[in-house]
User: Which sequence fits this backbone?
């Protein structure tokens, strides 16, 4: 089985001198459903930012399905679909336009773009909203819109940064079911979360990141066995 994501000795020092990542090592296997778990400020979004080249790293190596993100950027980019933590689409464009336009970045044919837009908007329960401007959507719908957009080029690796933060419990369940389904069909998934329960119900393997360092890297089962949840390093029980 091949390695979907390989991170070696990743360091990120922001311009103000703050070192957000202090030598992160991480391997995620193809087909895995992987959680990067950690408290606020641990370095999860910084790590994701580096993987999809939105954040410039200070040192280290990152490759996606064997493609180096520096020297084989175009190939690496094709392998990844990203659902960022913050909404980053135009609030004035329609749901359909936002998804179709994304296909342009990957050079997809118009007919394929249109067909896949319909497919993913239907799967994510947004087809009825296709002509609605994004600003009219609820938070959960906006999150699902970003998932549809991330899938348009059918990436082998889907990365979601805190996908269920602020999403109510019903919607969270249906989003989880959807993610399980596409993982079962072969898409490798990495999500970041600060909820242990989210990792527990979705993921097979988990790395815990704290203050820019990986402090644990194991299966979810093994983590739950060794962990006394009452003294867990951060409170994950809120909101679930
Ligand atoms: P997480 O996603 O785990 O909550 P982040 O990766 O967003 O954490 O942030 C990690 C640390 O880096 C935090 O202490 C945050 O304040 C800091 N940080 C994030 N972005 C910047 C930036 N642009 N400049 C300086 N520090 C930053
Ligand atoms: Mg974050």
Assistant:
């Amino acid at each position: 089985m091949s390695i979907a994501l390989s991170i070696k000795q990743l360091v990120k020092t922001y311009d103000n001198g703050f070192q957000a990542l202090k030598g992160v090592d991480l391997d995620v296997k193809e087909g895995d459903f992987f959680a990067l778990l950690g408290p606020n400020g641990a370095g999860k979004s910084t790590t994701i930012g580096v993987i999809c080249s939105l954040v410039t790293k200070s040192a280290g190596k990152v490759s996606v399905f064997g493609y180096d993100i520096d020297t084989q950027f175009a190939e690496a980019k094709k392998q990844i679909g990203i659902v960022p933590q913050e909404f980053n689409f135009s609030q004035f464009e329609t749901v359909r336009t936002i998804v179709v336009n994304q296909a342009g970045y990957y050079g997809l044919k118009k007919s394929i773009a249109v067909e896949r837009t319909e497919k993913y908007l239907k799967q994510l329960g947004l087809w009825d909203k296709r002509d609605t401007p994004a600003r009219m959507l609820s938070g959960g719908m906006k999150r699902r819109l970003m998932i549809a957009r991330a899938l348009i080029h059918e990436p082998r690796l889907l990365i979601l940064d805190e996908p269920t933060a602020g999403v109510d419990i019903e919607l969270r369940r249906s989003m989880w079911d959807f993610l399980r389904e596409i993982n079962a069909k072969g898409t490798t998934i990495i999500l970041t979360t600060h909820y242990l329960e989210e990792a527990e119900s979705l993921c097979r393997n988990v790395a815990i990141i704290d203050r820019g360092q990986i402090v644990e890297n194991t299966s979810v089962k093994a983590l739950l066995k060794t962990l006394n949840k009452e003294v867990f390093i951060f409170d994950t029980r809120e909101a679930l």
Observations:
- Residues 235-240 have pLDDT under 50 and may be disordered.
- Residues 88 and 146 are 9 Å apart (CA to CA).
- The beta strands are 3-13, 19-29, 33-37, 59-64, 67-68, 80-83, 157-161, 188-193, 205-210, 213-219.
- The chain has eight helices and ten strands.
